[in-house]
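The pair is listed for reference:
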Amino acid sequence: PSNTAVDNLGIRLAEAGVKAIRLGHPARVSPALVSITIDGQIARDGANDLAREWRDRARAMRKSAAGKHGPEAKELWREARALDRDAAREIANAERLIVDRAEVILATCVGCDHPILGDRVFDCAVVDEATQASDPLLLIPLARAKVAVLAGDPHQLGPVVTGGPQLEAALGTTVFERLIESGAPSVMLEQQHRMHEQIMTFPSRSMYAARLVAAPQVAAHTLADLGVTEDPLRPRPVWIVDTAGKDWLEERTDFDPGGSLNNQPAYSFDPSTFNSGNAERVAAEARRLLSRGLAPTDLAIIAAYSAQARRPRDMVREERAAGVEIVTVDGGRMTLNYTVP
């Protein structure tokens, strides 16, 4: 469903030497995958150069014909149109060849309706983050395959559905969830490769019947493995800072449609919850980590609400410029605990 998930898969497939094509608008594709987009591969094959040459010639002919009349002008216009058709045909042929030689086509669910695929049906469609794909989205890739494999986690965030209770009731659950509930063949991927086993313990017990196992590479991984100086006041992989009793009150960015907020138009703000005191505390903790030698690109701050994410963004501007990432929970989604064949 998301471009980020497609890009993550694409980067790993490219590293494994798999011949893949990334479909989608270049502006939404990771810079790391530009070389495997249709445009990137056409440019590498040289088809663009030939098509550009023909179009340049066609443009010159039209310019020449603009000052002429009679049969000569008509002939120039005819040749220009023929060159344009040849250029388009050259690009279309190059696109077909690229698709034919690919082992994997990468696209979002919506991107599976790309015109370049025509009526092509694939041996298998693998849908990552399938628990974030509402039924109408999922039907697009499913219609293109003889077999489908759905990968996702029904215990994590589901599809984003707006439009009122009726629509949410109809599209709020996914095919993946209904297949799991009906007893369809499935397997749980029990080994996780993301977190220290102490961080893993709570989600494992609360959502996965204590079945999760940490991969050896991450089971005891700590900041010391990154060369970060130890902090005697933060000795464990998980550290909970209790802010109860600080009198830090939650606020909302609610607004009167005709009013304003902080002297800015009200319509520029979404109603959301934030806590300024808590944000300041988080920013201080981030600076504490960075002072120990943690690289900014290795630090992420995750907030529950968009308004709360905006607070530390303003407080750690320099650190963000150096690579610190600040996202909301749904902006940093974790996936892949189940697969359903």
In short: The chain has twelve helices and 14 strands. Residues 71-101 form the longest helix (31 residues). The chain has a mean pLDDT of 85. The first strand starts at residue 20 and ends at 22.
